[in-house]
């Protein structure tokens, strides 16, 4: 069943929307990896799309629908190095962004949000796992972590780059790798506005890199006694802007950095939000930074939609895992493109879980089964 017929049956207007032909382009990019071959590469990609849509592992999907053998999938992916797989994954995301650009979704300047996406892992520790998530009893669970850059705007998101974190890789290397990949994307050229990041990235090295490359940035800053004193002084003077001296602690060599801190009082409370930014705002207009930063939360919506099309796996291969994460992000991108083309306004949050499977499965799953035969 085609996508257009799905919408006609739902009483929605007949429009040109994302269809199953979109996946053919992604399968073509993936099958271009020399060790796979065109025919086998496309079948593997369609099978992994089916895993994401059904929330199954490749073994469970094969038992239910047939298609490519799990041994063939895993042995083929094992031949691909992590570095090569990251390049392929970013080419796949670049194609997704090009589709959105063809639909004129990047006419206006968009901000780039960077965040970590953690996926639980129940195996033993590897160089590609970190302990970050807190469990139910105060324990920290092991997970695979991925740095993701997403173009965000009002009710808009499109994941544009991904990079796997590993032990020994700093926040600076993740931010640098993601932004350099975003800069190479022709669709986003000269259309990237402000870089939005979580307070986890607020470090001297990251800020120096952003400023040396002329990036505008906004990120929240962790509260401290020094920051509290600066805020109390701001309340007395009415000037909610101050200079803050950050320190990077290195053995025997401390590096200092002076940054601009802007305070936004919380209404009806004694608390405040603090942001560090190189965007100069007039006195009394600090709230603009808070409004811009709110767009970063759309990357969290991106991750939430991605979880609806999340496959399962027990594989320890980081290349295979980042490929599954990328396919999930692509499906989430297609969902947002679909939503924009079909509706004049975003679907409500409660409708995501109810409609995502229904629409995308009709769009992809049936042709996928045919493509695997």
TrEMBL record:
<dbReference type="InterPro" id="IPR012337">
    <property type="entry name" value="RNaseH-like_sf"/>
</dbReference>
<protein>
    <recommendedName>
        <fullName>Transposase DDE domain-containing protein</fullName>
    </recommendedName>
</protein>
